[in-house]
């Protein structure tokens, strides 16, 4: 350890068996030791996502993890210690992290060990207190936009635009010069995506024929690409607005998976991370103020409650405040 201020034990939220939200309980655990290619993160805040619920249920368990398992794939905080080979960050740096492989435990803890390549300095423009819940969805949204690779000026339709990934995709798409039609949830969702710069904001709970009519008004030649953050009947109808040769992209895990349709390529994507992706994400974020919309914050000791909230509807993201 490069830093004498690190304690031997820490507060964490962990589980000893797979199951519902109630299996996550407050714990005192040893602070993880880091390898040469790892950093020790002093966690300020951690994101709470559906992937954490899947981990808790035993569906998406990181390779090498053992009970008690500390969940959490994303966080923001400061570097408390660095391994001997680490060159991209130093002790004291304010960073964010997204780590899908984390054998030493996740970020629902005061400290977490993670490979340095999964960590990036927090760019200007992101409010520090919300940054812990940004990385997974921001990187995944960027992967979706990369898959579509639309030219500036093209029309992009985002379905589920007020959700965790959707509201970040709206902002990243605008930074790439795209014209964005955001289909959001309810009046609150429409207000959010409008504030974030969507060119057209529509309520997905509205009459679908009216929504399609409005899309055809602004993009009479058809929409060039569609990012689908949710599936179902509304999405199948929205896909009618796509021009021939367009791509419908959706993150893996969307249920039901979008239907194939003639003239349209339907393709799934995963969030990818690594130094190149983190650098590109930071460049996009630094182009202007970047909002990470937090629906609700929970202290670390109420992680189980945060997981219950995951099962309800909300705009944006859920956040655990750690220190």
Question: Summary?
Answer:
24% of the residues lie in helices and 28% in strands. It has helices spanning 50-56, 135-148, 164-175, 186-195, 208-218, 233-238, 275-285, 303-310, and strands spanning 9-14, 25-30, 38-48, 74-82, 94-98, 111-115, 119-121, 155-159, 179-184, 200-203, 223-228, 242-251, 265-269, 294-299, 317-321. The protein is globular.
Describe the structure.
There is one protein chain. This protein is of the alpha/beta class. It has two domains: 156 residues, Quinone Oxidoreductase, Chain A, domain 1, CATH 3.90.180; 134 residues, Rossmann fold, CATH 3.40.50.720. The strands form three sheets. Strands 3, 4, 5, 6, 7, 14 and 15 form a seven-stranded mixed β-sheet that branches. Helix 6 links the parallel strand 11 and strand 12. Helix 2 crosses helix 3. The protein is globular, with a radius of gyration of 20 Å.
């Amino acid at each position: 350890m490069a830093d004498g201020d690190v304690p031997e034990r820490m507060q964490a939220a962990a589980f000893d068996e797979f199951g519902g939200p109630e299996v996550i309980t407050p714990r005192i655990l040893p602070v993880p030791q880091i390898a040469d290619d790892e950093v020790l993160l002093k966690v300020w805040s951690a994101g709470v996502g559906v992937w954490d619920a899947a981990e808790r249920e035993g569906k998406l368990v990181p390779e090498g993890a053992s009970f008690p398992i500390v969940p959490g794939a994303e966080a923001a905080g400061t570097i408390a210690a660095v391994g001997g080979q680490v060159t991209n960050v130093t002790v004291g740096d304010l960073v964010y992290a997204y780590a899908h492989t984390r054998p030493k435990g996740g970020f629902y803890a005061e400290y977490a060990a993670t490979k340095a390549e999964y960590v990036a300095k927090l760019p200007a423009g992101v409010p520090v207190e919300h940054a812990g819940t940004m990385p997974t969805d921001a990187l995944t949204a960027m992967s979706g936009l990369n898959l579509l690779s639309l030219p500036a000026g093209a029309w992009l339709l985002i379905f589920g635009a007020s959700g965790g990934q959707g509201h970040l995709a709206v902002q990243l798409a605008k930074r790439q010069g795209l014209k964005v039609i955001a289909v959001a949830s309810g009046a609150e969702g429409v207000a959010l995506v409008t504030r974030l710069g969507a060119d057209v904001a529509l309520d997905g709970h509205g009459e679908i024929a009216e929504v399609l009519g409005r899309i055809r008004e602004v993009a009479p030649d058809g929409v060039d690409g569609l990012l689908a953050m949710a599936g179902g009947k509304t999405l199948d109808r929205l896909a009618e607005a796509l021009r021939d040769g367009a791509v419908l992209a959706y993150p893996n895990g969307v249920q039901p998976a979008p239907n194939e349709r003639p003239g349209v390529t339907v393709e799934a994507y995963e969030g990818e991370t690594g130094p190149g992706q983190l650098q590109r994400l930071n460049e996009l974020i630094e182009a202007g103020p970047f909002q990470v919309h937090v629906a609700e914050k929970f202290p670390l000791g109420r992680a189980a409650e945060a997981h219950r909230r995951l099962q309800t509807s909300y705009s944006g993201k859920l956040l655990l405040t750690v220190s």
